[in-house]
Amino acid sequence: SFLIGSFGASAVIVFGTPHAPSAQPRNLICGHLIGALCGCIVRVTIYQYEKSIGCAIAVATSIVLMQFTETGHPPGGATALIAVTSEHILPWANFQLILMPALSGAFTMLLVALIVNNMAHKRTYPIFWW
Question: Is the pLDDT of residue 125 over 90?
Answer without folding.
Answer: yes
